Amino acid sequence: MIGTPGTAQPADLADVRTTNLAVVLRHVRHHTPCSRADIAAATGLNKATVSSLVADLLERGLLRETGMAENRIGRPAAMLTLHGRPYAAVGIQVAADHLAAVAIDLAGERLLSWRRAFPGLAATGGRAEAAVAALAGRVAAKLTAQERRILGLTVAVPGAVTGTGGVRFAPHLGWSDLDLRPALMRTLRHPPYDVVVDNDANLAALAEHRSGPHAGTPDLVALIGGVGVSAGIVAGGRLVRGDRGLSGQVGHLQLDPSGPLCRCGRRGCLEAYAGLPALVRTALPDTEADGPITDYAPEIDRMAALAAGDATVSGALAEAGRRIGHAVSVLADLLDPRVVVLGGAFTPLAPWLLPAVEAEVKARATAPEQTGRIVVSTLDPGAVAAGGAALALDRLEAGHLPGCD
Amino acid sequence: MIGTPGTAQPADLADVRTTNLAVVLRHVRHHTPCSRADIAAATGLNKATVSSLVADLLERGLLRETGMAENRIGRPAAMLTLHGRPYAAVGIQVAADHLAAVAIDLAGERLLSWRRAFPGLAATGGRAEAAVAALAGRVAAKLTAQERRILGLTVAVPGAVTGTGGVRFAPHLGWSDLDLRPALMRTLRHPPYDVVVDNDANLAALAEHRSGPHAGTPDLVALIGGVGVSAGIVAGGRLVRGDRGLSGQVGHLQLDPSGPLCRCGRRGCLEAYAGLPALVRTALPDTEADGPITDYAPEIDRMAALAAGDATVSGALAEAGRRIGHAVSVLADLLDPRVVVLGGAFTPLAPWLLPAVEAEVKARATAPEQTGRIVVSTLDPGAVAAGGAALALDRLEAGHLPGCD
């Protein structure tokens, strides 16, 4: 078989071997444990080729043998599984009010999950980079002490990221045109693993697409609450990044030109109703007197704790839910996703947001059954960082294999 | 090489030959004329395989030899080109006020381009199907009289289309849950060619992506004016269809909740400002007295003719342009396309719409250079029908080859 539809050039032989190594690795991930004969039967590769590929993956420490199969006809076969020990992938989420770090092994099992308060807007570019790099360094030291080798680090940023890992703008961090990846590479002293910077909503969408309850859904939107609001879009099974990586900017979708003033200078943007500063201002009007908020986690907890009995809080959340529903109906009309997943800060507040979201979407539908399901993320708060770590595994499965030791 | 990233199953041998036939056909399309040796060099297939594949394509009448190459070192080689004569692909656009039919040959050259007035909303489902089938039948008869064989017919509908060619709803035609493809198959007496029903904005986007001045742009949105307004979205080089084929519904994007009443019952939708009924109502307020409009083409011509000197017309178009600009900024924020192409009824009115569109998009950008270019389609009014015809060629290049005569 030469090439694939849309390409007229066949791959060269080195590419073929890389592709086949990745096919075998992917097969073992999804069908662990399995034998060399299972792999040959499922992939159509001949047994000699499979043996050679498996030997390579064993040598790289990506697979290991787990003993012999039982209940099989014929000669007992050595069973293969992913090698959980020696590798790790790391994701770090930079949010406006905190940093989160997650490390996973090859099978996606979580090795560590840390959270640190982080004065995003208050920190200048240099100090913010240093804080991210310091956290990455501590994670790396911990994993290295466990004799793990790091496959890759992905940093998730709430903003527009260029293909070379620069941050074009991240208003909630006060960043613009920041060469984050090169800066991290310098601070981490040019580590032997890949460092990648990506958008946080994209990574949230990838995390849902990879390991949420609706994993594998080809058309899925993750709508992520926080200081800002943004969307990660999966269409036809692939992330929609846009021409310059700027897709999913839903925070300044103007819902009502006569609505409340937004930080951007216009009125009635989604963030002016459903961003955390707006939510806290309307739900907890006494809070501002205590001075500026640097970490929203306690305020989210307070809203969740009060909502059942406090009409101001529940009313503010229902109003935010209606506005989120309006935005979901726009996303649904334009993209027709099967599932819209509410995540980030929307998750702990979902019991009070979701009924209003659903009612508004239903009221706005211009045709029956026009909108897919709206669900609340069941992934934990480290999901974006974990999605970043998973991206390093995706690169592995796409053929970016580590060398032999 | 086995499989492609994302699939663990290699293709079987019949698939390999089909794929390779399509690769050769695609190479000749893009590098005509070329020799068998050129094809072998470019695709990596060996010369014996290329000779066998070319023989097959010559026998099917898809390629022909055009004589010997000059200015070549070594033995003169027979040059191959697409066989323009015996095949044709047909596209029919069903609009609210007209039907358009286009037929093209293998090289994409237009064989015929027809337009008929069509009382879309006034026709009941059965009569509308009959009108579409009658036009298809006349096109087929004309092509058959030229001794051409029809490869496929694509029907473009302004509405939501299911995977099996049913129309879920097409409000501007008054259609809902209409099994259009089966009905057309019956009326056309189960023709030997494929009949496919698709959304008109999707086909417009494919036409721009295939043959517009920005052909090949991976992230492109076609915003199509008419009685309704809809968008065709190409992201990462692929059409975004959504889960149920309902993507691109931008007509009822609510721009201002206190705006003019829309046909859908809400206020301030894009269509209530920039759909043809709204445009005619504001630009040509005397027109309604003449009775209901069944074909908007004369009114579009009148607006274009009057706009230079008539402040009511130019003011109405500028206001519509501002609202279109608002919608474009939403599309840009969510999808980050490199190019937004204004097409359909927006094309002839573009000189008066575009300045307002651009000013509004610029005013709404929340970051510098946030929005891709906004351009006016240079494709002719038959472009959607031609896009439908081109889809039949795409199916050919994807390996759906006609049999030998």
UniProtKB/TrEMBL annotation, chains A, B:
InterPro entries associated with the record: ATPase_NBD, HTH_MarR-typ, ROK, WH-like_DNA-bd_sf, WH_DNA-bd_sf
GO molecular function, one term: DNA-binding transcription factor activity
Superkingdom, natural source: Bacteria
Pfam families on file: MarR_2, ROK
Domain HTH marR-type: 24-65
Protein family (similarity comment): Belongs to the ROK (NagC/XylR) family.
Name under which the protein is recorded: Xylose repressor
Originating species: Mangrovihabitans endophyticus
